[in-house]
Amino acid sequence: MPVDAPGLDDGVTAVAHPNIALVKYWGKRDERLILPVTDSLSLTLDAFPTTTTVRPDPALSTDEVTLNGIAAEGEAHRRVTTFLDLVRARAGSTERAAVTTLNSVPTGAGLASSASGFAALAVASAAAYGLRLDATALSRLTRRGSGSASRSIFGGFAVWYAGPEDDAGDDRARDLASYAEPVSAELDPALVIALLDTGPKAVSSRAAMKRTVGTSPLYRPWAESSRADLAQMREALLRGDLEAVGEIAERNALGMHATMLAARPAVRYLSPASLTVLDAVLELRRAGIPAYATIDAGPNVKVLCRRGDADRVAGAVRAAAACRVVVTGRGPGARLHSGVR
Ligand code: DP6
């Protein structure tokens, strides 16, 4: 997806959707370059888009960042500025920018808001500063904002390669080796999202994964098993085998949460309501409905199932947890907004 810089006075707008990993990214081997320990694989959703406008302005002395109408401060502002510095360095610009973001997904609740957020920011800022990047290069750039966001550059299923773990030295070569790309799949499933708690989490995923890698005795075994999960996941997707895809996704996610529970001190994102939904998913399977759970850095549970079963699955989850439920499916990759003149 090469992008052109329209060079508009009112900025450049991009839209991106969150993705949910079926084989998780949990743990970095390089914090600065955001190089992960393992490959991961996700489904980009057709719900909860983020729309971001970037307008470079020579009159600004600092980046002005607005998130859902509120000026961003502290860490949120710092992450955007750090990312824009990277874009500016590549574009040979020192111009600060006004950044306006509308996030329809709750921020910081384990609903992949940083994925859609940084994918939209990357596409909009690359175009606004005149960088001409193909989709692979865009995914690498997006990775530097938030690892999981590299996968939201693509629609449908996408894999994010970690690059060789034993790499040393040359930052450029290490950077080049870690990017996302689309994955072939004979599957068009539904992902039913149980919105159990949409408030921001107590521990950010960035801090939690760092603590897990540094202290959890279960981390290495999980990372090792995740490599096998990824290979089997790709085969299952090619076969269109929903049961296998679901089983692998569920065990990979629960394993990731096990690594966190064993961290010191423990990181626990699962709530009683999360367990209630996990029970409801087991009940559905006992009743012959293939439904499988995955959970990210928050209590909210996402249930993978056939599109034809989505209403039944949504009803069972709603009845069990008395929560809002959203039925989603495969969505598009990040792109410049069609409304941009
Ligand atoms: C649990 O991509 O938010 O959602 O790279 O530090 O910004 P940073 O982390 P982030 O972590 C996402 C973790 C996850 C699993 C996944 O999306 O693969």
Structure commentary:
It is a single chain. Residues 1-7 have low confidence and may be disordered. It contains nine helices and 16 strands. Helices cover 38% and strands 21% of the residues. It folds into two domains: 12-185, Ribosomal Protein S5, domain 2; 190-328, GHMP kinase, C-terminal domain (Alpha-Beta Plaits, 2-Layer Sandwich), CATH 3.30.70. The strands form four sheets. Strands 8-7-9-6-1-16 form a six-stranded mixed beta sheet. A four-stranded antiparallel beta sheet has the order 2-5-10-11. The two termini are 18 Å apart. It has 341 residues and is an alpha+beta fold. Helix 1 runs parallel beside helix 2 and helix 8 crosses helix 9 (310-321). The chain binds ligand DP6. Ligand DP6 is lined by residues 21, 24-26, 34, 40, 114, 146-148, 205-206, 296-297.
Question: How would you concisely characterize the structure shown here?
Answer:
By secondary structure, this protein is an alpha+beta fold. The protein contains nine helices and 16 strands. β13 (291-295) and β14 form a beta hairpin.
- The CATH class of the largest domain is identified as Alpha Beta
Architecture of the largest domain, CATH level 2?
2-Layer Sandwich
Category by helix and strand content:
alpha+beta
**Spatial ordering of strands, largest sheet:** 8-7-9-6-1-16
Domain module tally: 2
List the helices and strands and how they pair.
Elements: E1 12-16, E2 19-23, E3 28-30, E4 35-36, E5 40-44, E6 50-56, E7 64-67, E8 70-71, H1 74-91, E9 97-103, H2 113-128, H3 135-143, E10 157-160, H4 171-176, E11 180-182, E12 190-195, H5 205-215, H6 219-239, H7 242-261, H8 272-286, E13 291-295, E14 301-305, H9 310-321, E15 324-329, E16 335-336
Parallel strand pairs: 7-9
Antiparallel strand pairs: 1-6, 1-16, 2-5, 3-4, 5-10, 6-9, 7-8, 10-11, 12-14, 12-15, 13-14
Helix pairs in contact: 1-2, 2-3, 6-7, 8-9
Bound molecules: ligand DP6.
Ligand DP6 is lined by residues 21, 24-26, 34, 40, 114, 146-148, 205-206, 296-297.
